[in-house]
Specification:
By secondary structure, the chain is mainly beta. Helix content is about 10%, strand content about 40%.
Length: about 150
């Protein structure tokens, strides 16, 4: 069976940046299982896995446009410390859930200067090429429940 729309694909992967540093890996964990064709993984990786079968291995370079998108300056803004009422200490690197006109998103504090906090709503990997080493472990038909939910059960 091959990875096509409405199949469950299980992969082992290692994700590295252009510097070769490991960003994420399934090594030492359960492999990643996703419902192919339902937008459950980044588009560039899903396109590369299209048609692949169990046992196939591939190296994939995903450019930002097919990954987490380019970095967008408009997603960086300065807000008042008042927005963090109830938080004892706000420091760079902290992440918070925020509401936007487009719905909920995660923002990261990048700088704190006096009563002004700079936050960044870009994904941490936005603007970066992503390098995947992937091995397809299994491809199977999705269950009716998985198709209805749009994701792998369990």
């Amino acid at each position: 069976m091959h990875a096509t729309a409405d199949t469950v694909v299980t992969i082992d992967y290692t994700l590295t940046g252009n510097d070769g540093e490991v960003i994420d890996t399934s090594e030492g964990r359960e492999p990643l299982a996703y419902l192919h064709g339902h937008g459950n993984i980044i588009p560039g990786l899903e396109k590369a896995l299209e048609g692949k079968a169990e046992g196939e291995e591939l190296k994939v370079k995903v450019e930002p446009e097919e990954g987490y998108g380019p970095r967008r300056d408009e997603l960086i803004q300065q807000v008042s410390m008042e927005a963090f009422a109830g938080i004892d200490e706000v420091e760079p690197g902290m992440k918070f859930n925020a509401e936007s006109a487009q719905g909920p998103l995660v923002v990261k504090v990048t700088e704190v200067e006096g009563d002004t906090v700079t936050i960044d709503a870009n994904h941490d990997l936005a603007g970066q090429p992503l390098n995947f080493d992937v091995k397809v472990r299994e491809v199977r038909e999705a269950s009716p429940q998985e198709l209805e939910q749009g994701q792998v059960a369990g």
